[in-house]
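Budget justification aside, the reviewers requested a transparent look at the raw inputs and outputs of the sequence design task funded under Objective 1. We therefore reproduce one unedited record. The lines immediately below are the structure tokens for a 557-residue chain.
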């Protein structure tokens, strides 16, 4: 091996790869530049999921003609001058890296007019070099057009997802910046069709209504708290409104959109005991703190920040959300029908804590012996007796397993039973949900969902799977679209759909069941192939064998 210094071309492409991961990264950098330039109107257009074309136009300061080439030089920025500036940077950009990175992986055109020039300037770049330049008229501001992203990077192109997935990343991103800057008018156009727009009125609630739907936002609570260092403002959902993933948690630090597990935990802590397991709130949280209290330079795409006082920030956010929740009547009693067993069931739990008396059977394919129902504990677990001792069955997990198997079996055999709705149900979707629906419409149809467009992000649901009859359709489809948008978890759509439906449609913990219902549930569980685990892999039951019972009671020797 010989050590060599890489050519500048290779270096720039490697560096670009870190900043520009996918089309949405280009949109992010361009929007940030527009915001930094003081724009009050930003229009984003994308075609082919952003791979064919991305165009961002603003009415900001424009780039002086004399500096246009410089803007595409690596480490050329108007935003900081010295290292000290980094500690007090208030602009979103500061590295002078975004434009050269984009130009390294795509063909770029810029048309800009700054107030210091008589006429606007147009340049086009290929392989990072300016190939043409001319004077052209434009009102003050800048339009950057990015064509054929990753054309010469087949590896990256291959890694990109479908057009609708890439588009949904762009929609999500745009909705985040719209939430961060309610005073800026945003417009998003996909292939000629406006998908999202805000008015720039400055009203956060109005933008949140655009993103999450007016219904949801009506019940959202104002968050507002200020202490010596940290200001927290925004909106948080009431406990009645929840989602099945964390996509609806937005955090902005000094108006920079950040992904922060710390802030997500702080927010969710405030909801402890108020939401069912696996449900997450909707929240838009703006933090303001002195620039010196955070490091914005820790992530290639500037999507994370580091707080110098993490604990203080955590506490401030948690308290701010708690205070907002305390102002609602629902939260005050902390009604907790879904919290674990308590009171009279304390003693068996303590036994389990000290010594593992109950051995969780994890033998996946093992059949279940015939069981006799003895009763229900805490409206959550079924006690049953079998040939070899005692079984405690989690009613929700067991039902989930039954539904999951049935949904997938019907689907695989192409024998899905469909329930037509006498009255079609109208559904209003967020831009992100709409993209997910578009991407998944065919698969959803194969599961029995007939969903038709009804104009303006409204859809009509005409049928659902018969197995889901009786479910709250709007909630079910909302949860389904949430679940389909999640990137982790099972990759195949059909599995995700079966997961989501079985979770949503199954009997809850805390629900009383009659003896007949329990017997039926166990009978059906016995017929599944993996009765001992739910589709998430958690146990559906615990088994205490006769031998263990005898041992515990000192009957054996
Ligand atoms: N839409 C725009 N309006 C006005 N000036 C712009 C615009 N886009 C870019 N510029 C100018 O071009 C320079 C380079 O932009 P670029 O995005 O590459 O770097 P940056 O924003 O300074 O830092 P970062 O790499 O962190 O984004 C900016 O500093 C700014 O002066
Ligand atoms: Mg920038």
């Amino acid at each position: 091996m010989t050590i060599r210094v890489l050519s500048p071309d290779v270096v720039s492409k490697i560096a670009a790869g870190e900043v520009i991961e996918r089309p949405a990264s280009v949109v992010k950098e361009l929007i940030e530049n527009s915001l930094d330039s003081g724009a009050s109107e930003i229009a984003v257009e994308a075609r082919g999921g952003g791979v064919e074309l991305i165009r961002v136009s603003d009415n900001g300061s424009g780039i002086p003609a004399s500096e246009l080439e410089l803007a595409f030089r690596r480490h050329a920025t108007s935003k900081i001058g010295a290292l000290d500036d980094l500690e007090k940077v208030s602009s979103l950009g500061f590295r002078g890296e975004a434009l050269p990175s984009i130009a390294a992986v795509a063909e770029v055109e810029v048309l800009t007019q700054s107030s210091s020039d008589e006429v606007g300037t147009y340049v086009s770049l290929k392989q990072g070099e300016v190939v043409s330049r001319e004077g052209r008229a434009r009102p003050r501001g800048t339009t950057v057009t990015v064509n054929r992203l990753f054309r010469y990077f087949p590896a990256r192109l291959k890694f990109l997802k479908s057009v609708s997935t890439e588009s949904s990343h762009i929609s999500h991103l745009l909705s985040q910046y719209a939430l961060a800057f309610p005073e800026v008018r945003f417009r998003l156009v996909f292939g000629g069709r406006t998908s999202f727009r805000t008015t720039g009125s400055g009203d956060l609630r109005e933008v949140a209504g655009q993103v999450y739907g007016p219904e949801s936002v009506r019940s959202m609570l104002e968050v507002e708290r200020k202490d010596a260092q940290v200001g927290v403002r925004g909106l948080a959902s009431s406990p009645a409104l929840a989602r099945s993933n964390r996509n609806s948690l937005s955090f902005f630090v000094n108006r920079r959109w950040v992904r922060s597990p710390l802030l997500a935990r702080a927010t969710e802590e405030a909801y402890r005991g108020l939401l069912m397991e696996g449900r997450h709130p909707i929240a838009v949280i703006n933090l303001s703190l002195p620039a010196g209290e955070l490091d914005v330079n820790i992530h290639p795409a500037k999507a994370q920040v580091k707080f110098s006082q993490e604990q203080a920030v955590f506490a401030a956010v948690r308290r701010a959300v708690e205070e907002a929740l305390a102002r609602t009547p629902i939260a005050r009693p902390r009604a907790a029908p879904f919290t674990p067993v308590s009171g009279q069931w304390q003693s068996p739990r303590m036994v389990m804590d000290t010594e593992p008396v109950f051995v969780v059977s994890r033998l996946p394919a093992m059949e279940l012996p015939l069981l006799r129902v003895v009763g229900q504990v805490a409206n959550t677990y079924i006690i049953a007796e079998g040939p070899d001792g005692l079984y405690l069955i989690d009613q929700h997990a067991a039902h989930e397993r039954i539904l999951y198997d049935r949904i997938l079996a019907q689907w695989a055999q192409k024998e899905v039973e469909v329930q037509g709705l006498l009255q079609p149900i109208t559904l209003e979707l967020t831009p992100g949900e709409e993209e997910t629906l578009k991407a998944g419409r065919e698969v959803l149809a194969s599961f029995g969902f007939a969903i038709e467009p009804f104009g303006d992000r409204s859809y009509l649901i005409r049928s659902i799977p018969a197995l889901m009859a009786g479910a709250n359709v709007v909630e079910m489809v909302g949860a389904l679209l949430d679940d389909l948008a999640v990137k982790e978890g099972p990759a195949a759509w059909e599995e995700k759909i079966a997961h989501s439906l079985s979770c949503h449609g199954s009997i809850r913990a805390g629900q009383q069941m009659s003896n007949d219902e329990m017997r039926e549930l166990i009978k059906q569980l016995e017929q599944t192939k993996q009765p001992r685990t739910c589709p998430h892999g958690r146990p559906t039951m615990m088994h205490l064998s006769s031998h263990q019972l005898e041992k515990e009671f000192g009957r054996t020797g």
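The pocket of adenosine-5'-triphosphate (ligand 1) is lined by residues 29, 33-34, 37, 58, 60-63, 71, 77-79, 93-99, 142 (CB under 6 Å). The mean pLDDT is 86. Computational costs for records of this kind are itemized in the attached budget.
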